[in-house]
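Structure tokens please, single chain.
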Amino acid sequence: MDIIILNTNFEQIAVIDFCASVIWTERYCDNGDFELYLPVDPESLDYLKANNLIMRSDKPESLMVIKSLTLSTDSEGGDYLTVTGVGIAEYLGRRIVWEQTTLIGKPVEICRELVNLNAVNPSDDLRKIPMLELGSYPEQTDEVTKQSTGTNLLDAVKELLEAY
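Here you go.
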């Protein structure tokens, strides 16, 4: 399994073919996280930077955002780098539900509309998350009413989806 590094424009900038350890956690109702532990290579410090993205070659649909890097030295093994981060849903956590919004409908449709209004097609273009698109979703029958204002967008979506 290779680890592919992407810049913030989603362009591939490097491939890591060896890590001493990879911990990759995906969660059903919460954002995932990862930890890479690898020998330090001077070139790797050029592309392993906060906010760059990573994905596994065997799971291209699972993107993660680099949050921090920690350098450690082992007298026997040399210098190692620990790279940690969270799932790409982190991008939704960078937005709030800007205006008072009351939506009635199926939970998944409400979540899609919250994301659309606050991240995909917001009234203020500066709040748009580049390259974010809404995909397909499963059918649901339950209808609910949801009101949000000033709530973190990721928290609002998680709360509704966890409940239903």
